[in-house]
C-alpha cells in the first residue's frame, strides 16, 4: 500500500482548515505543501506563515516541496514552521550534498526532486544520503496538469538504482496522479503518491482517497 499525500495547492485557500480536517479524517497519510517563489517556477503559492498555520491543525506529517531558488536560506525556518520532510530541487542546488546535510542537521527528513528533463542517473552520488526522491511527473508550477508518460520509465530506473545502491530512499511521484494511473505508478515502484486536483476537485474526495489507498 502506497503512502498518499494530498497536495493542498488544490485546496480551498479561503477555507483551508476545512480541507485540512478532510485530510485528517481521511485514509491519506501526509500533507503535501508546494512552496513556489515565482523564480524557480513561474508561479507563486504560499510561504512560511501559511505552513505554520497548517501545522496547527494538521494531525499528519507535513511533506514540504520547495520549488524555490536558494533553499539553503530557508531550511531552519521551514523546520521551525513544522516541516517533517523537506524536499529541494536538484536543479536549484549547486551544492546539493551540503544542502541535504543541512536539512538532516535540523533533525528532519531530506528529499531531492528532479524535473521531467533531469535523468535519474544524476542522482547516483546523492541517492544513499537522502530519505526520499521526488520524481516530478509534470513540469512544476501548477496543479491539474497531465501526467507525463515517460515518468513511468524514470520510476523503474530509480527503483533499480535504489536496489543497486541499497539506498533506503522512498520514491515519491508528483503531478497528474489520479485514479486512472495510480496503480501503474505503484507497480513501477513508487512508495508515495501526491495528488492535488484528483482529490480536491472530486465530488467524492474520500472515494478517491480510498481507491488509491486500496491499491
Ligand atoms: C506541481 C506541484 C504538485 C501539484 C500536484 O508543481 O509540485 O504537488 O500540486 O497537483 P496535481 O495532482 O493536481 O497534478
Ligand atoms: Zn509538489
Spell out the key features of this protein:
215 residues; alpha/beta; TIM Barrel; eight-stranded parallel sheet; 8 strands; binds D-xylitol-5-phosphate; binds zinc ion
Compressed to H and E, one letter per element, the order equals: EHEHEHEHEEHEHEHH
How is the biggest beta sheet arranged? 8 strands, parallel
Number of domains: 1
User: What best-fitting shape do the alpha-carbon axes yield?
Assistant: globular
Report how far apart the termini are: 6 Å
Number of strands: 8
CATH third-level topology: TIM Barrel
Query: What's the level 1 CATH class?
Result: Alpha Beta
Measured as a percent range, the helix fraction is: 25-40%
Low-confidence stretches: none
By CATH, the superfamily comes out as Aldolase class I
Identify the strand order in the major beta sheet: 1-8-7-6-5-4-3-2
Outline the structure in words.
The chain is an alpha/beta fold and 215 residues long. Helix content is 33%, strand content 19%. The chain has 8 helices and 8 strands; from the N terminus they run βαβαβαβαββαβαβαα. The chain has helices at residues 16-25, 48-57, 75-81, 96-105, 151-165, 182-188, 197-200, 205-213; strands at 3-6, 31-36, 62-67, 85-89, 109-114, 132-136, 170-174, 192-195. An 8-stranded parallel β-sheet has the order 1-8-7-6-5-4-3-2. The longest helix has 15 residues, at 151-165. It is globular. The mean pLDDT is 98.
Amino acid at each position: 500500500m502506497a503512502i498518499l499525500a494530498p497536495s493542498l495547492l488544490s485546496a480551498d485557500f479561503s477555507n483551508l482548515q476545512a480541507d485540512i480536517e478532510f485530510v485528517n479524517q481521511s485514509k491519506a497519510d501526509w500533507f503535501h505543501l508546494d512552496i513556489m517563489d515565482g523564480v524557480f517556477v513561474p508561479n507563486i503559492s504560499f510561504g512560511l506563515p501559511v505552513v505554520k498555520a497548517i501545522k496547527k491543525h494538521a494531525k499528519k506529517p507535513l511533506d514540504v516541496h520547495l520549488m524555490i531558488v536558494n533553499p539553503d536560506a530557508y531550511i531552519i525556518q521551514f523546520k521551525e514552521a513544522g516541516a517533517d520532510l523537506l524536499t529541494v530541487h536538484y536543479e536549484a542546488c549547486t551544492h546539493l550534498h551540503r544542502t541535504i546535510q543541512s536539512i538532516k542537521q535540523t533533525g528532519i527528513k531530506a528529499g531531492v526532486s528532479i524535473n521531467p528533463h533531469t535523468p535519474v542517473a544524476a542522482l547516483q552520488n546523492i541517492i544513499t544520503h537522502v530519505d526520499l526522491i521526488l520524481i516530478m511527473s509534470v513540469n512544476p508550477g501548477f496543479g491539474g496538469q497531465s501526467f507525463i508518460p515517460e515518468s513511468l520509465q524514470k520510476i523503474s530506473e530509480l527503483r533499480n538504482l535504489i536496489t543497486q545502491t541499497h539506498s533506503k530512499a522512498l520514491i515519491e511521484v508528483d503531478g497528474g496522479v489520479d485514479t486512472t494511473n495510480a496503480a501503474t505508478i505503484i507497480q513501477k515502484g513508487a512508495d508515495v503518491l501526491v495528488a492535488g486536483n484528483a482529490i480536491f476537485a472530486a465530488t467524492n474526495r474520500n472515494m478517491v482517497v480510498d481507491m488509491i489507498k486500496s491499491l
